[in-house]
Design brief:
The chain is built from eight helices and 13 strands. β6 and β7 form a beta hairpin. With 341 residues, the protein is of the alpha/beta class. It is elongated and about 80 Å long. The chain folds into two domains: 13-198, P-loop containing nucleotide triphosphate hydrolases (Rossmann fold), CATH 3.40.50.300; 237-339, Beta Barrel (Barwin-like endoglucanases). The longest helix is centred in the middle third of the chain and has 18 residues, at 168-185. Strands 1, 2, 3, 4, 5, 6 and 7 form a seven-stranded mixed sheet that branches. Strands 8-12-9-11-10-13 form a six-stranded mixed beta barrel. It has helices at 3-11, 37-44, 66-80, 97-102, 118-131, 151-158, 168-185, 321-326; strands at residues 54-60, 85-90, 110-114, 138-143, 189-198, 206-208, 215-217, 252-259, 281-283, 292-296, 300-307, 317-320, 333-339. The N and C termini lie far apart (65 Å). α5 (118-131) packs parallel to α7 (168-185).
């Protein structure tokens, strides 16, 4: 080792700094095989593979046994390491002790942490990770992050405010940014359960809700590891989809215009309802009348589809003047749109 290298190592304030050939970080990664070969392939791309340290996310519709798959992986980990502990963060409270018993999991090795908001989860999990040392055998499950509210959402509800929370996705991204280095450095596998919803369009895909502005999940598997999730883009204007959202509201992107400025209650929409430019309504070429959409730009409101249009190439949605004004949209813009029903 050169004198320069020795000086640089001595000057470093990072405990694990070393010559790359001696690095503890890039040693052989742990691999936890499960008894289901197809699951091993989904997790690692290998028939004899399995769960590895780091962040893994399951995303799918309800009743897809996402918790069951997570506990199956936990059982495999705990069988390999008899001294290991399962740290189970629970926001849905749908997995009683009997469900753990059905997988043969020793309840005395499960630390159950009920959580009610993202910030509570973030603060607790970071404190736990800070206290875990490399070589400690811990597996973490978060069940689930899909229906976990932010602290701001809870506070707004308690104060009687009905406003959209644009901070939730940022809090989730912040959580994952903070935990990922600790998981990798300390060889800790963490499995996160999430939910999906259908995007708007003629050929809708499943979208992972409330995270990274929405990630697509390919069909028909229902389950995807989103660490390498891809964004979806479309040039089909009629489909109403124009790429992934960057607002973190969990919706798709649409090019929207507005209409009705200066009009009075003097005509009927395509649904037969009287057009009110000040009501929160919208026109779409294919969505059923009565569809509720959450639209966001510099603010968010919920609109009801009661008209047809816009019939201008490159535009997918026409908002009423009142709805456009409420979200701060003064001209044709790309906005975030989430279907609510």
């Amino acid at each position: 080792m050169s004198a320069l290298m020795q000086r640089l190592i001595k000057s470093s304030t990072i405990e694990d700094t070393s010559v790359l050939t001696d690095s503890k970080i890039y040693g052989k990664k742990d691999m936890i095989p499960t008894p289901i070969p197809a699951l091993n392939i989904a997790l690692s791309g290998k028939l004899d593979g399995g769960l590895t340290p780091g962040l893994t996310m399951w995303a799918g519709v309800s009743k897809m046994f996402k918790t069951g798959f997570s506990l199956l992986m936990a059982k495999a980990y705990m069988d390999k390491y008899p001294d290991s502990v399962l740290l189970f963060y629970d926001s849905e409270f749908g997995s009683p002790q009997s469900y753990f018993n059905s997988f043969g999991i020793d309840l005395n090795r499960v630390l159950h942490s009920p959580i009610t908001d993202i910030e509570q989860l973030k603060f607790d999990i970071m404190k736990q990770l800070e206290g875990i040392e490399r070589g400690d055998r811990v597996k973490i499950i978060i069940d689930s992050i899909g229906n976990l509210a932010s602290k701001k959402e809870v506070e707004d509800a308690l104060e009687g405010k009905s406003v959209a929370d644009m901070s939730r996705a940022k809090q989730v991204k912040s959580l994952f940014r903070m935990v990922t280095p600790h998981l990798s450095l300390k060889d800790i596998p963490m499995v996160v359960v999430n939910h999906t919803y259908k995007e708007i369009g003629m050929f809708p895909k499943d979208i992972v809700g409330g995270i990274f502005g929405g990630q697509s999940v390919d069909q028909p598997t229902k389950v995807k590891r989103t660490k390498h999730g891809r964004s979806v883009q479309s040039n089909d204007y009629d489909s109403g989809y124009a790429g992934s959202s960057s607002h973190g509201s969990g919706g798709s992107r649409m090019v929207a215009s507005f209409y009705g400025h200066g009009e009075r209650l003097s005509r009927h929409t395509a649904s037969g309802a009287v057009f009110n430019p000040h009501a929160y309504t919208a026109a779409h070429k294919t969505l059923p009348f009565g569809t509720h959409l959450r639209v966001c730009h510099n603010g968010c409101v919920t609109v009801v589809v009661n008209d047809r249009g816009p019939f201008v190439r490159g535009r997918s949605l026409d908002l009423s003047y009142g709805a456009a004004r409420a979200i701060g949209m003064g001209s044709t813009k790309s906005i975030s749109v989430e279907r609510l029903n």
